[in-house]
Amino acid sequence: MLKSKRKEDEKKMEIVTDPQEFQKRAFADRAAGLKTALVPTMGFLHEGHKSLMEYARQNADRVYASVFVNPTQFGPTEDLEDYPRDLEHDAQLAESAGVDILFVPEARKIYAANHAAWVEVPQLAEHLCGQSRPIHFRGVATVVSILLHLAMPSIAIFGEKDWQQQAILRRMVRDLWIPTEIIARPIVREADGLAKSSRNLYLTESERKQAPGLHAGLLHLAKKAKDGERDVAELRKELEKYFAEHVPAGKIDYIEFVNPEEIQPVTRLEGRHSRAWDHFLTRAAVLHGGTGSQCFWTLSGPTWRANSEYHSTGEQVLFSGEAACFDNCQWRKQRFQTRCAH
């Protein structure tokens, strides 16, 4: 276990709200030769966020975290106004995890009234969640680009809950020559397998009981692939059958199998020379309806690749020689005017 790089005599965490002041401090740290880390969040922090901050603390000299509910990644009928917020709790958690500066800007300071510049990676955003949320990843890429230009961190740390987002951000950083390494860290789960999420409070009691069935369904699918099934159509049927039995209140919005780097659909889980050594990503969105709102779960997995070991880390399971299952359990409150899967 790496020890914290924060020294005993260093000052406690500071909260900075002005982007120019944040940038000034961050640039001074880099100019001093310090390794810096940024953990971008939308707040309402939980143990998953804390694990990212603790990783940053162990691997950097200075740690920044941001709390910013980014309006540009929400559609017109999504939960921007209802998104849970608790800055006092967030500050306490961030400080306990070793954060040096908590950046909490206002939207008007991040986006000018006549803001007109956007960052997009359209080829990676056209499938999966991008189908039903056409502006979401544009908003994500733009705000992360802004945060990276403000902080210019050595590393930026995200959770693995959204594989598509990580693929987009890595491509953005590469193509725009942003000198930051994007690091994705394992999902932190509840005891029954549900990924910790700021939106878990949206779930009804019955929906919460069924949520682990989605994770279990993907593990079931990974076993089918390990046993030799490679046809995507058959695997999709198998997952639909599993969800119908174990998540009966849910309605499948989509199930897709894609290449995880290019986010392009595949029809068979086979790579070069008909071997199953290449990576594949399965993502399923299942929604539950309620009066006036809907809840969505999004999961990703499995990924097949050569691996000589079997282990479970809580967020992925690697099957010897063939299969790995990555899973993400997220969901979003929605009004009935739109049918959005994430």
Oligomeric status: single chain
**Category by helix and strand content:** alpha/beta
Number of helices in the DSSP assignment: 11
Question: What's the gyration radius in Å?
Answer: 20 Å
Mean pLDDT, all residues: 76
Trace the largest sheet across and list its strands.
1-4-3-2-5-6
Q: Compute the number of strand runs.
A: 14
Unreliable stretches (pLDDT < 50, length at least 5) are: 272-278, 289-342
Proportion of beta-strand residues: 15-25%
How is the main sheet built? 6 strands, parallel
- Percent helix, as a range, is 25-40%
Query: In one word, what is the shape?
Result: globular
- Give the terminus-to-terminus CA distance: 35 Å
Could you give a short description of this structure?
The protein has about 350 residues and is an alpha/beta fold. It has helices spanning about 20-30, 45-60, 85-95, 105-110, 120-125, 130, 135-150, 165-175, 205-210, 210-225, 230-245; strands at about 15, 35-40, 60-65, 100-105, 155-160, 180-185, 250-260, 265, 280-290, 295-300, 305, 310, 315-320, 325.
